[in-house]
Every structure is written in C-alpha cells, then in structure tokens.
Amino acid sequence: MSYKIFWHQEALEDLKRLGKAEGLRIVDKMESYLSASPKQLGKALTGKFKGLFRYRMGKYRVIYTVKEEAVTVLVLRVGKRDEIYRLGA
After folding, report:
1. What is the pLDDT of residue 82?
2. Which of 68, 71, 65, 58 has its CA nearest to residue 26?
3. Which CATH architecture has domain 4-87?
C-alpha cells in the first residue's frame, strides 16, 4: 500500500529556500521511497514533537505526520538538522 504525500504550505516554502536542485531531490525521495512505508523508514519523535516523525536526508530533516485512516503523509517542515527543531512543526 502506498501513502499519498501532501505538503503543508510551510514545507513548500522551506523547499523553495533550499534551492531547486535540493528541493527536487527531497520531493523525489519522499514521493518514491518514503511513501511506501513512512512509519518504518522514519523515526518517531518525542517531547513537544510527539506524534510526528522525521526522515533524515543527509544534513536535512523532513518532519511529517502519518494519517493511517486516510493513507496519507502530511509533510510539515523541511530544514537543516541544526535549525528544524527550533522552527517547530
């Protein structure tokens, strides 16, 4: 079963700030790889981010939530590791 990927407006703005090449690489990876099994491939977060997941792509992190009943993944934020957790989700 493949999950449908949706992008929050803030995540789209984050991608634009990264540049076209890097943004496309992240979108491609999410659509082709993570959509297959988002809970197993990502890592569950704790603390104030409990209920969310993160996926690591080099120095970047993708913060997302999984909706099992709708078989969807909502990408909330994308950013560098040292900044993403300060941004909030």
Report:
1. 86
2. 58
3. 2-Layer Sandwich (3.30)
